[in-house]
From TrEMBL:
Alphabetic keyword roster: Glycosyltransferase, Transferase
Organism: Elstera litoralis
Highest taxon in the source lineage: Bacteria
Gene3D superfamilies for the chain: Spore Coat Polysaccharide Biosynthesis Protein SpsA, Chain A
Signal peptide feature range: none
Any GO MF annotation of the entry: glycosyltransferase activity
Coiled-coil spans in chain: none
Protein name as annotated: Glycosyltransferase 2-like domain-containing protein
Domain Glycosyltransferase 2-like span(s) in chain numbering: 3-116
Record-linked SUPFAM superfamilies: Nucleotide-diphospho-sugar transferases
Family to which this protein belongs: Belongs to the glycosyltransferase 2 family.
Keyword Glycosyltransferase: yes
C-alpha cells in the first residue's frame, strides 16, 4: 500500500509523522512525501533520511495541498492509498487493521476512523466522533456507513489522516478538486460516497495536532467553499431531512465564525443561536451567548 504526505515548512512535526508510519506492523509500504514550496530544509533532510521503507520524494511548487495529494496518488503503485498530514501521527496497528478491512470488503472505496485532537502541550480535546455524537454500532473494527452520502453531508466525520481509499476510485472521481478555496477533502469524501460503499470504525487510530491558528485561519474561504460543495452534492441525490438540518446548521456556524474574525460578534451570535435551535446543539448556543457577551463588552 502507499501513504501520501503533503508537507510545507513542517519538518519538526514531519519527522514524528514519518516515525508513526515506520512503526506500523505493515512491511510493504510505499511512503510518498510531496514537498510543496518548503524552505525549512525538508527536502535536504529527506534526501539523507535512512528510511526503512521505500520512500519517494516529490518536490513541487504547486502551493496547494489538494494538488500535492493528487501528485502523490498519481505516483502511488499500490491499489490502496492512505493519507497523513505532516503534523499528525498514527497509533500502532492503524494500517494493518484498515488494510484487513478493505481486503474483507473489497467493494469499499473509502474507509475512515475516529481520531483524537491534542494541543502542542498534550491537552486532550476529545475525539471527532464524540464531538459529532456519532458512533458505529460496533465496539471495534469496521462496518459500512449507512446513508453514507447523506450522513457525510450533515456531519464532518472524516479526518483526512484517518482515510484509506481505493486508488482506482480516487482517480475515477477526479481526486481532490484544486479549484476549491478550502474543504476540498470534504468534497472528495462526498464524491467517493456517491461512487461506492464507505466503511468506518470507532477505533481512535490517529492524533490530530491542534496548532495555534489552525482553527481560525481563512474562515471566509472555508465557508465559501462549504457553500459551493453543499450546493454541488445536494443536487446529486436524496438527503435525509435531519442531515439537511445539520448541514444548514454547519453553514450557519461557519458564517458565525467568519463574522467573529471580523469582530462582528452581535451578528455572529444570531447565527450561532439559529444553528443551535435548528439542531439542539448546546455548543452553538453557548457560542452564541459568548458572542453576545463580547459584543456588549465592546459597546
Amino acid at each position: 500500500m502507499a501513504v501520501v504526505i503533503p508537507t510545507h515548512n513542517c519538518l519538526e512535526y514531519l519527522k514524528k509523522s514519518l516515525k508513526s508510519i515506520v512503526d506500523q506492523t505493515v512491511e510493504d509500504i510505499q511512503i510518498i512525501v510531496v514537498v510543496d514550496r518548503s524552505s525549512d530544509g525538508t527536502a535536504a533532510w529527506l534526501a539523507q533520511y535512512d528510511c526503512p521503507r521505500p520512500l519517494t520524494i516529490i518536490e513541487t511548487d504547486v502551493g496547494s495541498p489538494a494538488l500535492a495529494r493528487n501528485l502523490g496518488v498519481e505516483e502511488a503503485r499500490a491499489p490502496l492509498v492512505a493519507f497523513l498530514d505532516d503534523d499528525d501521527v498514527w497509533m500502532p496497528g492503524k494500517l494493518a487493521a484498515q488494510i484487513a478491512a478493505h481486503q474483507a470488503d473489497p467493494e469499499v472505496v473509502l474507509s475512515f476512523t475516529d481520531y483524537r485532537h491534542r494541543t502542542l502541550d498534550g491537552q486532550d480535546f476529545g475525539t471527532c466522533f464524540d464531538y459529532w455524537g456519532a458512533k458505529p454500532a460496533i465496539a471495534r473494527g469496521f462496518t459500512r456507513l449507512n446513508a453514507q452520502r447523506s450522513t457525510l453531508l450533515g456531519r464532518n466525520l472524516v479526518g483526512t489522516s484517518t482515510v484509506m481509499v481505493r486508488r482506482d476510485a480516487f482517480l475515477a472521481v477526479g481526486g481532490f478538486d484544486p479549484s476549491l478555496p478550502s474543504s476540498e477533502d470534504w468534497d472528495l469524501w462526498l464524491s467517493l460516497a456517491g461512487h461506492g460503499p464507505v466503511s468506518w470504525s470507532p477505533d481512535v487510530t490517529t492524533e490530530y495536532l491542534l496548532r495555534p491558528g489552525s482553527l481560525t485561519k481563512a474562515r471566509h474561504l472555508r465557508i465559501a467553499a462549504m457553500t459551493m460543495i453543499a450546493q454541488r452534492h445536494l443536487s446529486r441525490g436524496p438527503t435525509r431531512w435531519q442531515d439537511r438540518l445539520r448541514l444548514r446548521a454547519r453553514l450557519l456556524v461557519g458564517h458565525a465564525e467568519a463574522l467573529e474574525q471580523n469582530n462582528r460578534r452581535g451578528i455572529a451570535a444570531g447565527y450561532h443561536f439559529l444553528a443551535g435551535l435548528m439542531t439542539a446543539d448546546r455548543r452553538a448556543l453557548r457560542a452564541g451567548i459568548a458572542d453576545l457577551s463580547r459584543s456588549f463588552q465592546r459597546t
